[in-house]
Each structure stands twice: as C-alpha cells, then as structure tokens.
Input
Amino acid sequence: MATETELKLELSADAVDTLLGSGLLGSPISVDPLTSIYFDTPDCQAWEGGYSLRIRTVGEAHVQTVKAAGQNRAIFARSEWETPLTGNTPVIDYTTPLRSELDIEDGTLVRQFSTLVKRHRWNVDQDGSQIEVALDMGSIVAGDREMQIRELELELKDGKPYTLFTLARRIEALVPIRFGVASKAERGYRLLREQQTAYKAEPVHLDRDLRVSASFQVIAEACFRQLRLNESIVINRPNPSALHQARVALRRLRSAFSLYKVILVDAESQRLKEELKWLAGVLGEARNIDVLIARVGNSDVKSRLLEARDSAYEQVLNALFSSRAKAFMLDLNEWLHCGEYLALVETAEIRNGPVVDFAIDILDRQRKKLKKRGKSLVEADDEHRHETRKAAKKFRYASEFLRSLFSSKQAERRYEKFIQTMEKLQDELGLLNDMVTAPTVIHNLELESHPDVESLMVAGNSEKLITAAQSSLDELMERKRFWRG
Output
C-alpha cells in the first residue's frame, strides 16, 4: 500500500491553453493517451464500501489501481494499491481491501464507466522537492452520458508538502484555478445517477487513535469539500438548495475553528476566520431573499423579490470569482496542512493529545453552554434567544463532527434520540428567528409599504413556539450523553 500526497486543481479550457503555452512547467517528459476502465459489482459494492477499482492502459501496459475513496474523501492524501496486469480483467486477491474487507471476489465485477484523456506529464523541482505534474484533458463516459475533464494533479514524489502549494501559487499567478475535491471515480459514479442539485454534509469519520490536530484537519477538509461541491453548482447551475448548502458548509467550518480554538492561536487562523465570516455574509444576503420567496405565491411582491435575488446572486458570483475568494481557498488549504498552528510549542500538549478525551471535553462544554443560554427562553429577549439558537447549532455540529468516536450500540442509540430532539429544538428556534429577522430583511429590500408585505411575515404564535422550544431544550438536557458511558 502507498499513500498519495497530491493537490488536484480544476482549470478552464482557456487556462489549459495558457498554461501549455507559457513554458512555466518546462517541456513535458511525456504526452500519452490514457484509457481507464472502472469496475465494480452491479450494485456498486466497492464504491459504497469506500473504494474504487480501475485498470489503466498506457500503450501495451495495464495497471490495476484500487484507491480508498474513504469515509472522508480526502483532498490531500489517499491510500492506493497498484498491481501490473496483462489485460483488462480485474484481479481480486488479498493484497487489496476489496476481498479482505468487502468479500468481493473475481468474476463479480462489471464495467461501470471509463475515462479517455490525453496526459501531459512533467517532473518539477520546487525548492528541492520532486513533484510530478499531470495535466489530463478528455472525458468521462458512462453509457450515453459524458463529462469533460480538465484537471491538473500535483503529486509529491519526494520532499516537503508545502512545496505543492508553492507550485500551485506559481500556477495560480498565471491562470485561474479551483481546488478539485471529486476524483474521476466519483464523477464517473455521479454520471450513473441522477444529477444532484446540492450536496449535504457527509458523515465525518474519525479514528480513535488520531491526534487532536489531525482530527481538526479531517473535519475541516470535510467542510471544505462540501463548500466546493456546492460552489461548483452555484457557479454553473445556481439554485437555492446549493447556495444554502454552501452556506451550511461555511457555518460548519466556522464552528470547527471555534471548537478547536485552543490549538488555533496563530495569526493566520484568526485571519482565515475573518475571511470565512466575509464569504458567509455574502451568501447570507442571497439566502435571506430565497427564504422570503419560498413564502409568497404569485403576487407582485414575488417579482420584486426575484429581481432582488438576481442581484444578490450576482454578488455571490462576483465574490466566488474574486481574487479574495480564490486566495482564501488556497491559503486555507496550505495553512490546514502546513500552517504554523501545527508547530506551536505552547499548544503541543493539547494538539498532540488523544482526540477522544478532547472530544468529550468539547461536547461537555457545548452542552453546558447551551444549558446556560437556554435556562429561561420565555423571559429572554430576542437577542438572547438568537444566541441560544447559535449555541444549539454549534452543539449539533460538534456532535456530528465527533459522533464516530463513540460507536458502541449504546452510544448510537443515545445519539439517535439526541439528534431527534436537537432537530426539533432547532426547527422551533429557527422559526422564532425567522419571525424576528423577516422585518429587517423586508426593510433592507424597501418593501415595508408593499400591499402584499404581510405574505412575507412568518405566521405563528411566538409564545407557543417559545414554550415548545423550552420544552425541547429541557428534553435535550435530560437525554443521556452519547459520548459518555
């Protein structure tokens, strides 16, 4: 088994032409047509189990590669198993996890899709590190469906990981880049299914033997992946669901920064938090209008809102295409894997400590904070209830991030009951928040005097909702803690 350390970058057609004509990478050492066939069982058992299998053909050579798609689909390092073959028939043995973990045997695999690309390849010396650069141009084909590929992979062969980002910055200074978070295999499997309009957060898997800093990296990568998947949809097929999920990804990442703040004490951590807040704010303006539109019928006010949404979405796209956002994406990923926070002496004991103890402490503290904020919702003002809502959301994100560390049957039963009550509480607090914020949004859109403005207000009995929220919060506090035996 080997582990790849690589960056995957997505380029436009114009960017590919500019890069190839620039001489930035020197002369390619090879330009080859590559054909890769991806195999799986008819019900996609390998993919569902966290792996992909392909056979790549270059000239007369055939190589089978099994890659860990993983419970967390990492964008920086992945395990893989390679086997030379004499043809295009998969070989399943105990040298890969397909048989040992998934009980997949020879003869059970069928062809699912293929990739057909032309690969330019360079060997680049960057600050003493050896990096293989591969530019793939072509397509993924699954039946009668096809997807174009323009992908640049930077793989560290020898040296320091930070040099991958140094090279990425040299490329970014020449052409626009976006981080790729979906492998060719994942995109191929997508072609086999219905097109998604948005991507919800995927479960995060943390091994119990992880150090605290490594657990933060896994969580942050999962949040960034959700952001990029939805960002791509917002850019190419804008819709309220994708924009909402992109905003959720930003909220989750901001929560991760807050939950791990004890080890994130470097200056760059603080700057990146401010950039997250900025981008979340831009998306929030558009999201507020989407929420209002969902409440109205076909009245004239809807046309006014649609105009406002068009303007808000234009601001979102301007932000996503801005040099500020692009720099943030690159800065975030470099800092996450190579940042100063990973080497600070003052945080070393906590940073290198066991993640389970750290997780228990986080969950206890978030529970205590929510309990304190939610003591008397009936007597509290709107601002206090809003703070309670944020505390509940942060507690839920912490629970989702860390739940895999507590996997006993008892813990799973407790978690299911916990999350059901948490969802009910969040729904109730969310409605209360909408009642309070709707007038402000309407004012900002200058719609107070519109005859149909009442249709934008959230209907409901606030006192009844507050009582229900208090009941749900009290019930949540009575639930047994899934993170404690």
Residues 199-352 form a domain with the CHAD domain fold (CATH 1.40.20.10). The beta strands are 2-10, 30-40, 51-58, 61-68, 77-85, 110-126, 129-142, 145-158, 178-179. The longest strand covers residues 110-126.
